[in-house]
Specification:
Layout lengths: L2 H21 L13 H12 L7 H15 L5 H15 L1 H4 L4 H25 L11 H23 L4
Organism: Dyella dinghuensis
Membrane topology: Multi-pass membrane protein
InterPro entries: Cell_shape_determining_MreD, MreD_proteobac
Length: 162
């Protein structure tokens, strides 16, 4: 198998794995702390992919797939991931060279922005205001960011992929 094909399969595999991780059920008590895996993996690829693989179209398709798998309002996660990818791609050259602690804070800001966007979408859909614990997910996701980033980066380097 050529290196380009292996690189493509690794890229697609990580995105599919993130969608599957999103489906893993947690106990009801831990559900508010569930990380937003598709956003984290999409952010990783937006920062580390030098080619044009990551774009708003891919973010939209990934979001629609996540919407269909989760059974939420169609387009909700697609909109969220498009906004997230747009901001990450816009500031990619800066975010990429931040130290890990600053990158983690930037990821936290992006994920809190994502929660605000989700709150607006759900308000337009007529849903009730979520409880305060609903805001814990971006902080858990940001805490996992350094580990996920280093894990994906290490695996990508071991496979010697672009």
């Amino acid at each position: 198998m050529s290196r380009a094909r292996l690189s493509l399969w690794w890229f697609i595999g990580t995105l599919v794995f993130a969608l599957l991780l999103m489906l893993v059920p947690l106990p009801h008590v831990l559900d508010p702390f569930k990380p937003y895996w598709p956003a984290l993996v999409l952010l990783y690829w937006a920062l580390e992919s030098g080619d044009a693989r990551i774009n708003l179209g891919l973010a939209f398709v990934l979001g629609v797939c996540a919407d269909m798998l989760n059974g939420v309002l169609l387009g909700e996660q697609a909109l969220r991931l498009c906004v997230l990818a747009f901001i990450a791609l816009r500031f990619r050259s800066r975010l990429r060279f931040f130290p890990m602690w600053q990158q983690t804070l930037a990821v936290l800001a992006l994920l809190v922005n994502d929660r605000f966007l989700l709150l607006i979408v759900r308000a337009f859909a007529g849903e009730a205001t979520p409880p305060a614990l609903w805001w814990a997910s971006p902080f858990v996701s940001a805490a996992l960011w350094p580990f996920l980033f280093l894990l994906l980066d290490d695996l990508r380097m071991r496979l010697r992929l672009q």
